[in-house]
Amino acid sequence: MKIQKLFTFIGLMICLATIAGAQQNYPLQVSVVPKPPFSPRPGDYFDDPSKYMQVIVTNTGRGSYDYYLTVKLEMLFPDAISAEVPHDRPPAIPLSIGPFQTVVLNMWDFEQVLGHLTLNHLITSGIKLDSYSEAPNLLPEGTYRLCVSLYNHNPRVGQGLALSAPGGASCATFQICYSASAPLLTSPLPCVMQLPDDELNPVSPFVVTWNPPVTSCISQPVTYNYDVKFVEVMPGQDIQTAMDYNPIALNLPDLSNSVLTLDTNLFMGVFRQGQRYVMQVTANDVFDSGLIILENEGESQLCTFVWGAVDEWDEEPDIPDPDPDDEEEDPEPFDPPVVIDDTSESTDPQCMAEVPANQTPFDG
Predict the structure, then answer these.
(1) Of 168 and 22, which is predicted with more confidence?
(2) In this model, does residue 321 exceed pLDDT 80?
(3) Stretch 153-162: mean pLDDT, rounded?
(4) What whole-number distance in Å separates Cα of residue 246 and Cα of residue 286?
(5) pLDDT at 10
(6) CA–CA distance from 349 to each of 154, 321, 339, 344, 355 (Å)?
(7) pLDDT tens track for 118-148
(8) Distance between CA atoms of 90 and 149, rounded to whole angstroms?
(9) Which is higher by pLDDT, 30 or 335?
(10) Rounded CA gap, 47 and 117, in Å?
(11) How far apart are alpha carbons 36 and 178 in whole angstroms?
């Protein structure tokens, strides 16, 4: 029984010593609050961490401290990658905090303690940072954690010793996602469903609808506008070739919603009876935030249709080929008429009748 009490007493003393040591070793508390939207480029978090997180430092003790900080970005799911600032490269000028003081770090504070570092100084695992701004080197989509640790800057009392506890409130968890689908046309149905009979009834208004881009998560507040383009298609022409090279019949840019209601009476002459057209919707990031990469550069599928029926007078008459067996018969032969210049040579009895002599006396 005495031995059991002895072990209990020793365990209690160890716990008290651990708590006391923790309070003595970590006089500063750091709290990290995430600030969306989040960039897919890892270097952005080290260029200006204050853009993506709010860091609050609290001194719980009576002493003043000169300190600097490190930042670690790590992926939790689905893979394990990380990039962090080494703690053995302190800045020339530290940050300072007084007794029982609370401060919120700003962009200039981060520049002061991290500005002397480059990407080559970062400790990385499973990630390439030398050209992080290019699309092939974007951070993989997934769940991430951003942690901040505080270290003592004063070399007389142990430069590089931790002043804040790791983990806990010093880390913020968030998602990175940037892939978005292209807009998806949903009407008119004969066009969208690629029906063999894609002839549209010329009506006003002419309504076109589409679904906006969809991301793999809902944390990115991106605003889109849309361009809608109509192009004539020549007979037998590929619709992609027509969209790329033919003159534009109608272009409606910067539409704010995913429904187009077109008054064809107002746009008279744009759509011609019996003419084939191809249309496409293109989505654009209004603020060009760089937080979203749209599939197919934001261009929807192509949609082709014929505007009304072809008028009958526009169609060429169907003339049948001649039947080779149906040959035309030659007409009955006939004798050409006889033209007589000298009646003396005529054999016609009427022509051979004797002409009466002139009985009128000639008065000499």
Answers:
(1) 168
(2) no
(3) 84
(4) 27
(5) 44
(6) 156, 55, 16, 11, 12
(7) 878 888 888 766 555 455 567 888 899 989 9
(8) 13
(9) 30
(10) 10
(11) 13
Tokens standing for residue 254: 């910067």
- C-alpha distances in Å from residue 39, one per residue of 36, 52, 141, 221, 294: 9, 8, 11, 12, 15
pLDDT, tens only, 173-184: 998 888 899 999
Side chain identity, residue 279: M
pLDDT band at 329 (very low <50, low <70, confident <90, very high): low
Q: Is 110 exposed, middle or buried (CB count within 10 Å of its CB: 0-12, 13-18, 19+)?
A: buried
How many whole angstroms from its chain centre is CA 297? Answer: 4
Who's near 49: CB < 8 A, 6+ residues apart? 55, 71, 110, 114, 146, 148
Question: For tokens 């149905």, what's the residue?
Answer: 189
Rounded to whole angstroms, the Cα distance separating 98 from 331 reads: 127
Asked if 4 and 187 touch (Cβ cutoff 8 Å), the reply is no
For residue 79, report the phi and psi dihedrals to the nearest 5 degrees: -115, 180
Report the C-alpha gap between 123 and 127 in whole angstroms: 10
195 is written with which tokens?
């029906």
* 276 vs 193: CA distance, rounded Å: 16
Mapped onto helix, strand or coil, the DSSP state of residue 28 is strand
How far apart CA 255 and CA 124 sit, in angstroms, is: 43
Gap between the Cα atoms of 302 and 299, Å rounded: 9
Token duo for residue 137: 């080197």
Among 9-18, 54-63, 283-292, 319-328, which stretch is predicted with the lowest mean pLDDT?
9-18
How many residues are given for the chain? 364
- The answer on pLDDT for 325 being more than 70 is no
